[in-house]
Records
---
Amino acid sequence: MELRQLEYFQMASRLRNITRAAERLRVSQPNITVAIKKLEAELGIQLFDRSQKQLSLTPEGAVFLNRVELALRNIQDAVLEVNDYKQLQKGTIKIGIPPMMGAYLFPRIFSSFQRQYSHLDIFMHEEGSMSIREQLEQDDLDFGIIIISGASNHLQLLPMSKNQVVCCVPENSPLAKKKSISLQDIAETNVIMLKEGSFLRQTILSKMKTENITPNIVLESNQVITLKGLVANGVGVAFLLDMVVEDTPGVKAIPLSDPIFVDVGLAWKKDRYISKAAQSFIDFCKDLLKQKHEV
C-alpha cells in the first residue's frame, strides 16, 4: 500500500468524481483509477459504488476513509514538525483569499509580511469564502482571510474588521437617490452576482428566497473590478462589501434597509499542528491588529 494510493482515494472520495480528483491532484485520470483498483485488490473490498452516475463510498469505503483522513493528517503534521526541528530559515504558507480580500485587504498585509519574513514563501489560492472554509477543514490550506461570520466551530478565528454589505447601483440610476435599498426595490432589476462559493452570494440569495424574490442574474464574476465596471456602465446592480467600493467612479454604494454586517478575519483549522512559518503569520496578523487599535 502506497501513500499516493491513499491520497488519490481521499481526493476521489471528497470530490465524488475521478476526473475532478485528477484535475485537483494534477495527474491523469487513469493514474487514479488504477491506484484505487490496486488499493481495492489489496484490501479485498470494494471502496466505491460505481453503479450510479456520481461516485459514492460503500459502507466499507466510508470506514476506511475515516482512518485514511486521520493517517494522512498525522503524516502531514509529522512532516511539518520534523521540518521545524531542522530549524531551517524557510517555510511555506498556503492561504486562501476571496476576490474582494485579494484585491483590497491582502496586498497590504502581504507586502508588510514579506518585508519582515522574506525567507517565507506564500502561495495564494483565490476562491469564495465558503469554498475556502471547506478547504481549511480538509487540510488543503493553512489559512484563509475570509468572511468568518457563521464559520464552523472546527475553525480558529481571528476577527480583523467588521464590514457592511452594500448594494452598488449606477450613479445615474433612480435607485442612486435612495438612502437605503430593500431587496424588493431591486426585484425587477438586473443583478450581477459573485460566483458560487461566495458567502455574499449565498447570503443575498437566501434573503431573496425568504422574500419570494427570483433575481434576474444577468452575469456572474469573481473579479471585483469587472463587477464595479459593469455597474458603472448600467448593466445592473451588485452586492459587495463597503470597503471595496469607496470612491468608485460611476457607482453609488447604498446600505440595505435591513442592514447586513459581516466579520472579516483570519481562519485556520483547530487541533492541527501549526508550523513555525504558520505561527509567524498568526503573530504578524495579531500585531497588525494591536497596532490598529493603538492608533
Note: Residues 162-262 form a domain with the D-Maltodextrin-Binding Protein; domain 2 fold (CATH 3.40.190.290).
---
Amino acid sequence: MGFFSNLFGKQTCCLCGTECGPLKRDKIKDKQYICSDCTRKCSEYVKLSELDKNAVEDHIRFMEKREKIYQDLLQNSKCSALPSTVREKGIRFYDDYGFLVIAANKNTKNKVNHEVIRYDEVMSYEMYTEMNKPTEQGKPETFKEDGIILKLVAPNPNMGAADSNNKNQHPYPWNTRDIKLCFRKSEKDTNYADNAIQHFDWIFGVHDSSKGLFNFGMSKEEKRDLQAKTDMAKLMGGVMKAAIKGEDPEGNEKLMEQMEQAQKSADDASSSGLAVYSRKADEAENQVN
C-alpha cells in the first residue's frame, strides 16, 4: 500500500505547500516533490531529479534573474532570430549583450521564465537530422525533422572540458541535458539550422584565421594578435617610464587604463574574440542585478 500511495497518491509541494497529483508534480532529491506550477519556473533542460529543495530554490532565483535581463534589456532590443518564424523551437541571438534566448512556439511554451543563456556558457553546438524509417521494404527514408543541439559548460570544470569550443568560457550553474532544438519538420521550410550554426561559428571565431579570396590584409585572428602585442608594448613602455620617474604604478591613472586595455586585448586574442561577448554579458548582469 505504501508504494502505491506514494506513486499515485497526492503529495505536498516542498516549495509552495500545494497538494499535487501524480501527473502534476516532479520528484526531486530526498524523496520530495514540486508541483507543476513551481516546475514551470525552472529551466526545462535542468535535471531537477538531481537537485534538493535548496538547490531548486537557488535555481528558480537564478531563472528569475535571467528573466529580468530578458525583460529589462533583451526583449525590445535588436536580435538575429532563427528561424524568423518559430514553428517548433528557435534561437534569438542578442549580439549587443552576449546572450541568446531559446524561442518556443506559442502553443508549446509553458514556462514562466525564458531560457536566457550567455554565449560563453555554450560548450558545443551541432546540427542534427532525423529521418523516418520506411514503412515498406525497398522504400527510402523520409524527412522527420532537423535542428541543432547545444551543450552547455558544466559547473564542474572537469566535465566535458575536452569538448569545449573555447577554454575561456563561463560555467552554466546547473547540470543540463542536451538542449535539442527542432527548427523544422518539413523539408519545404527554410533550413535555418545551418544559419544558426554559421552564427555560432561567427561568435566563436571559428573561421577568423581565414581570409577572403581577394583579401590581402590580415585576418581577424591576426588583427587580434597584433592588437594584443601592441597594447602590451604600450603597457611595458608605460611601466618603464613610471619606474624611471619613481612613480607608483597603481597611482598612475593612465597606466591603469593601459593595463586594463592590455588585459582585454590578451583575453580577446586567447578566446578567439569570445571575451568581447563575455564582457557584454557581465555588463548586462551588473546592470540588472
Note: The radius of gyration is 24 Å.
---
Amino acid sequence: METLGNLESFVRAAQFRSFSEAARRMGVSAAAVSKNVARLESNLGTRLFQRNTRSLTLTEAGDAFYAQVADSLETIQAAVAQVGDNRNVPAGRLRVNVAPSFAYDYLLPLLKPFKEKYPAVIPDWHLTLARADLVGDGFDVAIGGGMELSPGVVARELAKLHLVAVASPDWLEGRKLPQTPADLQGQPGVVTRSTDTGRLRAWTLRSAAGETFDLTLDPAAIMNDPEALCGCARMGMGAALVPMERAWPWLQTGELVRLLPEWYVDLGSVSVYYSARKALPAKTRVFVDFLVEHFRTTMGSRFRGG
C-alpha cells in the first residue's frame, strides 16, 4: 500500500507541474519529492510524468490517476489531522489572504483577542490586493468581496458592501441639500473608473422601497482608491460614492455628511472563503466562526448603507 508521502508528492507535483514548487509547499527537498514519485511509479508499474529540463507534464496514466486520488488525499489528510489530536485543539499556521486596508482596519485589532483565545494558532497573513487561488495557493482562508466560488470552496458573509453618497460641509455650504437622487445628478463629484473597461463609473442607487436611480456625477477628480475618494470629498472637491465602512469614521467626526440617507449602491458582501471539505481543520473553523460572530455583533452598521 502506498504511503501518504508518496501520494502527496505526486499530487502536489501534478498541481504545480514542478517538483521544486511541490517541495516548497510541502516543506521538504525537491530530491525527496522526486524520490517519492519515482517510488510510486515503480510500485504502480507505469510512468506518471513526462520529464524534461523545462517541464513536467502528466502522462495519460498520470492524469487518470490524479483525477482519482487528488480529492481523496485532501480528505484523508484532513481526517488524519483532526483525529490525530483527540482534544481537537486549534493549532498550527493559519494562512490568510486579505487586502491590506481591510486587514489594518478590521483584522489586526482582532489579532490579540483571537490569540488569547487560541494561542497555538500562528497567523500567517498575506496582505495583498491580488485575488488568491484558495486551494492552488495553499491558503486556509481568503477574505474579500465578489470573489468567484471555485469548486471545493464555500463562503460565509461577514458584512454588506454598500456605497453611500457623501460630501463635506464646505462643499454643501451655499448648496441646497439633495432630497432625491435627481437633485445630485450631474453635480461635481469625485469619481472612479471601472477596472474592467477603464470608463468612468456610473452607479445604480437603490432605496429600501425597491426604487432605483442611475446616478452620474460631473468629474471634478478621478481616483481609483476608496481612501482617496474619501480624502477628496473631505477636501470639498465634490460629492462622492464611497464604501460605507470607509466613510464611517468621517461621518462620526462630521468631516463628511451623508447625502440621500435612504439610498445606497449594493455591491454584494464581504465574505470569508474557505475549503468545503467536511473535516475542516480546527484552526480554520475557529477563525471563521470568530470573524463571523464579531462582524455580526459589532461591525454590521459600519458596512450597511440601508
Note: Residues 60-83 form the longest helix (24 residues).
---
Amino acid sequence: MRQLLLGRRGLAAAGMGLLAPPAVRAQGNWPERPVRLVVAYAPGGGTDLTTRAMAEGLTARLGQTFVVENRAGANGIVGSEAVARSAPDGYTFVTVTSTHVMNRHMVPNLPFDPMADFTPIALMARYPLVLMANTDAPFKDIPSLIAYAKTRPKGEIAQATSDAQSSYAANQFAKAAGIDLTEVPYRGSGAYLGDLTGGHLKLAWGSTATAMPLLTGGKVKVIAVTSPERSGFLPDSPTLVECGLPECTFIGWVGIFGPAKLPVEIARRFNRACAEVSATPSMQEKFRTMASDPAPMDLEALAATLRDDDARWAKAAKEGLLPRQ
C-alpha cells in the first residue's frame, strides 16, 4: 500500500512538472534551442564585435547556437525595449553599453526601467575613455592644456564627443579642471577623426579602440585616460587621477541583460559560461584586438556594480554633466 501511495505521489509530482511554465521546466537543461543575442547598436561597432566574439565561444561551450541580431536605434533603446517585452524563458537577451543605465537619467519618458525591467547576466568587456589631442596643438599634456585654456577666450577650445559616455567624461573633466571647453557632439567617433587628424580639432574623447589605430600616424596623441590606473594598452599615457583630477574616472562596459523575472538558475549558468569563454586564449586575443579588458564577475558583484553606476548617473544628472536626449 505504501509503495502504491508513493507511486501516486510520484505521478502527482510528475504531473505538476508537466503543468509548470516552460521556463521552469527548461532551467535544468538550458539551453535546449538557439539563443538570440540582440545587439542594441549598429553592426561593426565595439558592442557588435564583442557580442559576436562571445557568441562564437558560447556556441562552442554550451552546444547551442547563439544568434546575433542587430536592432539599433535611439541610443540602444529600440533593442532594449524589444528584449524587455520578451518572454523570460532564457532565449532572448540584449547586449548594451553602460549608456543602458545612463538612459534612465537622460531620456524623458523612457519606455522601460533599465534597473527593474531586466535581469543582469554578465559584463563581457570593460574599457576606459581617452582624451586625444592633435600633435600640433599648443599643449602636450593635461597641465599645459589647463594652463593654456585659462589664457584663452571663453569657449574658444573645442572638444569633440561622440556619445553619452564621452559627453559625460568631457563635461566632468572641464568642470574638475576649472576650464571652459566647448563640447562639439559628433555622430560617432568616425565622424570626427578627419577633423582631429587634420588639425581642425584640438581635442577629442573616445575609446581605447578608437585611439590605438591613430597613434601610428603621428597626428594624434593620447594625453590622458579615465581609468583609475594606467591602461595596459596605453602604458605611457597618464590617468586623469595622476594629473590631479581624482574625480575624473570612468570605466565603460559592454554587458548582457535578459528580461525581468528570468529564472536565476539560467542567469547563473549563463554568467558562468561567459566567464569561462572570457578566459579562453582565443577570446583573450580578441579582447586585445578590440583594446578592451575582460570583466568576469558573479551576479552579486554585477548587481552591486549596476547600483553604483545608477547612483553615479543620478548625481551626474543633477550636476548637469549628462546630455539630455
Note: The mean pLDDT is 91.
